[in-house]
């Protein structure tokens, strides 16, 4: 035992590891993010977290080249190439890439929402959803656009905003083919098609509310 203690005392790397390990017992989180105030037990976790605010994406997939701000994001993404989903729900059999996703998924069966906001009482099934929700109360906007500097309280809003710079419009209307930068804008647009039948078959004259349906219909004439 004495020999082991001597080795630890002489090795800076081992001393650092021991100090970090002890924090797992005390639940102490001495490393604080100066942007949003979130705390961590390890300095490396804080460094990884900060990339969320800066927009830096240091972890790149060697298969498709896509980059991520956190290593866990890259690990999760890689499984999309392999198709591997090793974690299965024992209630419905649905499979997932990550173990934590099984836990959150199970709440859809039980209706359980264990994470509650201490300000308004609203409950969530996922801890990250609660954290994001609290920014609404505090007015914090920890998610910054690395192009123009505009800040947002919700990460999803930052993602939508960035598309104004890139021009990306991933949500396409299956009625007319028009594309949008957000799902909300697409849903709003779709309401304009309600009851509308603007696409007519030039063979039989039958009308449809979407281009896709007209294309499918024309197959009966061929």
UniProtKB/TrEMBL annotation:
<feature type="domain" description="C2H2-type">
    <location>
        <begin position="143"/>
        <end position="170"/>
    </location>
</feature>
<dbReference type="InterPro" id="IPR036236">
    <property type="entry name" value="Znf_C2H2_sf"/>
</dbReference>
<keyword id="KW-0863">Zinc-finger</keyword>
<feature type="domain" description="C2H2-type">
    <location>
        <begin position="115"/>
        <end position="142"/>
    </location>
</feature>
<keyword id="KW-0479">Metal-binding</keyword>
<comment type="similarity">
    <text>Belongs to the krueppel C2H2-type zinc-finger protein family.</text>
</comment>
<feature type="domain" description="C2H2-type">
    <location>
        <begin position="87"/>
        <end position="114"/>
    </location>
</feature>
<dbReference type="GO" id="GO:0005634">
    <property type="term" value="C:nucleus"/>
</dbReference>
<feature type="domain" description="C2H2-type">
    <location>
        <begin position="59"/>
        <end position="86"/>
    </location>
</feature>
<dbReference type="GO" id="GO:0008270">
    <property type="term" value="F:zinc ion binding"/>
</dbReference>
<feature type="domain" description="C2H2-type">
    <location>
        <begin position="171"/>
        <end position="198"/>
    </location>
</feature>
<dbReference type="Pfam" id="PF13894">
    <property type="entry name" value="zf-C2H2_4"/>
</dbReference>
<dbReference type="InterPro" id="IPR050758">
    <property type="entry name" value="Znf_C2H2-type"/>
</dbReference>
<feature type="domain" description="C2H2-type">
    <location>
        <begin position="31"/>
        <end position="58"/>
    </location>
</feature>
<dbReference type="GO" id="GO:0010468">
    <property type="term" value="P:regulation of gene expression"/>
</dbReference>
<keyword id="KW-0677">Repeat</keyword>
<protein>
    <submittedName>
        <fullName>Zinc finger protein 702</fullName>
    </submittedName>
</protein>
<dbReference type="Pfam" id="PF13912">
    <property type="entry name" value="zf-C2H2_6"/>
</dbReference>
<keyword id="KW-0539">Nucleus</keyword>
<feature type="domain" description="C2H2-type">
    <location>
        <begin position="199"/>
        <end position="222"/>
    </location>
</feature>
<keyword id="KW-0862">Zinc</keyword>
<dbReference type="Pfam" id="PF00096">
    <property type="entry name" value="zf-C2H2"/>
</dbReference>
<dbReference type="InterPro" id="IPR013087">
    <property type="entry name" value="Znf_C2H2_type"/>
</dbReference>
């Amino acid at each position: 035992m004495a020999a082991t203690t001597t080795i630890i005392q002489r090795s800076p790397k081992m001393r650092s590891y021991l100090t970090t390990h002890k924090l797992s017992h005390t639940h102490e989180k001495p490393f604080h993010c100066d942007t949003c105030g979130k705390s961590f037990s390890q300095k490396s976790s804080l460094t990884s977290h900060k990339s969320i605010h800066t927009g830096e994406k240091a972890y790149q997939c060697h298969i498709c080249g896509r980059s991520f701000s956190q290593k866990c994001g890259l690990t999760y993404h890689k499984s999309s190439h392999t198709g591997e989903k090793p974690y299965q729900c024992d209630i419905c059999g649905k499979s997932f890439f990550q173990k934590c996703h099984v836990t959150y998924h199970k709440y859809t069966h039980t209706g359980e929402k264990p994470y509650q906001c201490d300000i308004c009482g609203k409950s969530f099934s996922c801890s990250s959803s609660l954290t994001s929700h609290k920014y609404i109360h505090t007015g914090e906007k920890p998610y910054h656009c690395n192009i123009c500097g505009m800040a947002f309280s919700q990460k999803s809003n930052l993602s939508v905003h960035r598309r104004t710079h890139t021009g990306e419009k991933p949500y396409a209307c299956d009625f007319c083919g028009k594309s949008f930068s957000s799902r909300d804008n697409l849903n709003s647009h779709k309401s304009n098609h309600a009851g509308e039948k603007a696409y007519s078959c030039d063979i039989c004259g039958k009308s449809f509310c979407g281009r896709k349906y007209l294309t499918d219909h024309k197959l009966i004439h061929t």
